[in-house]
Amino acid sequence: MKVLVLNCGSSSLKFQVIETATAAAPGERDRKLARGLIERIGEKATCRFEATGSRPHAEEVFIRDHDEAVQKVLAWLDSNYRARLDGVGHRVVHGGDHFTTSVLIDEEVIAAIEALNELAPLHNPACLSGIRASQAALGPSVPMVAVFDTSFHHTLPDYASVYAIPYELSLRHGIRRYGFHGLAHRYVALRYAEITATPSDQVNIITLHLGNGCSASAIRGGKSVDTSMGFTPLEGLVMGTRSGDLDPAVVGHLARREGIDVAVVEKWLNEKSGLLGVSGRSNDMRELIEHAREDERAHLAIEIFCYRARKYLGAYLAALGGADAVVFSGGIGENSPHVRAKICEGMEWCGLEVDEERNAAVLGVEERISLPHARIHVYVIPSDEELLIARDTTSIIEKGRVDA
Ligand code: ADP
Prior knowledge:
Layout: E1 2-8, E2 13-19, E3 31-39, E4 44-51, E5 57-62, H1 66-80, E6 87-92, E7 103-104, H2 107-115, H3 124-138, E8 144-148, H4 158-161, H5 167-173, H6 182-196, E9 205-210, E10 214-220, E11 223-227, H7 249-258, H8 262-271, H9 274-279, H10 285-291, H11 296-320, E12 325-329, H12 330-335, H13 337-344, H14 356-361, E13 367-368, E14 377-380, H15 385-403
Parallel strand pairs: 1-6, 6-8, 9-12, 12-14
Antiparallel strand pairs: 1-2, 2-3, 3-4, 4-5, 7-8, 9-10, 10-11, 13-14
Helix pairs in contact: 1-3, 7-8, 10-11, 11-13
The protein binds adenosine-5'-diphosphate.
The site of adenosine-5'-diphosphate has 13 residues, from α10 and α12.
């Protein structure tokens, strides 16, 4: 089945075309046919598209909104890659309490996603424009599926998801820990089960997804039982530009002392903090590692980043009562032996022992990096959210056909 995967960010659009193996042909493998990215939607945008068997395409052009971006992608796919699409899978950031699995999109689903706009004001409206634009361009004969970044975490028990604030306020405003990056954590857990031949309901692991955004998840019996992002993606680990955990009193204090609105402080915590805020240099881990020797603040930013991740590792070992493995993913987790080693440093007491040579050699590929006798193994598993979206889309469309 040929599936277009659309991932609309606040000012970007990523896509892939994936030919998925279907239930009717069990030996078949999923194949990636095309991919692309449009950045800086709303101004002079950069477009980079590539497909197997055709020349890569790059241009800079004004793109007004997500509607126009989707039309641009579909026009390029149409002229370069004429195969008919069997379905479209949309990544939707926030599914709230409403969506606990991926669903076939109809008017009711669109209205429910719209009702969640307040919880994800930057992201859900962009996803909705992507859905509407592709529906308008492709017509009702191409089924579409919404896949949510929050739904993997709907299994969090109340004691992990409810904040200790007045309960009525939580209920009135839908305030609780939803968790994000669900597709990344779910993919990694599925691959871990496949690689290690572990039945999926026996997967007991801690996943550390470390990219520009970073989050950790405690997975028991294949289900998420805790995760570090909360009501918004600001909570938890230190990230490229986000602070992660912080005493909430800092927000009011900064607003009063600087004479600014709380919204400005929130913007600082989201966009000017984390690795960038501490180092004053960059949100890019590569650059910080490169300059850590001569730049004290770059060094400090890396120290804080790794220490916070190790604290979560310890917390989740306690939450799970031990784990079989720790799995790294995301740009930093997949590519930085230095950060992986620092996070796992001094954890031998619980049986977590990294093999230095293996760790140094593993860059961006699936591999175990712990010593053979370690009681808690360590893996690198690059996450592939698009593939998971394409597979969910395929199985929901196939199921719809069987049920019809
Ligand atoms: P996103 O969350 O936007 O998808 P990525 O998963 O691509 O981001 O991760 C981006 C981060 O990965 C950046 O901080 C980048 O510096 C870091 N990164 C990529 N390659 C390396 C590397 N070889 N060493 C250290 N960090 C790396």
